[in-house]
Amino acid sequence: xxxxxxxxxxxxAAFVTGxxxxxxxxxxxxxxxxxDVESGAKKIGEGVETxxxxxxKTVTEGAKVTxxxxxxxxxxxxxxxxxxxxxxxxxxxxxxxSIKAFxxxxxxx
Length: 109
What we know:
This protein is mostly helical.
């Protein structure tokens, strides 16, 4: 009978302490999982930061290239602009000469 009582007490003790140690084990798993989530979140944050920096550099470099292209376009257009101005200037000079000749003939007769 004494052996049955001891066996019963050991069984009861196992049932009582079993869930407690299992709860402790689950708690350690929870903490480990939480650390994994925190670590992943930090990595995601670093990834977002790196991506944002990359986007910023891309925009900056794109603006520089666009500025350079506009400068090149302006330089390429200069000869045409000068040519157009020279054509306009020549046309104005020819018109002035025609008007002078017209009035010269009109009043000389």
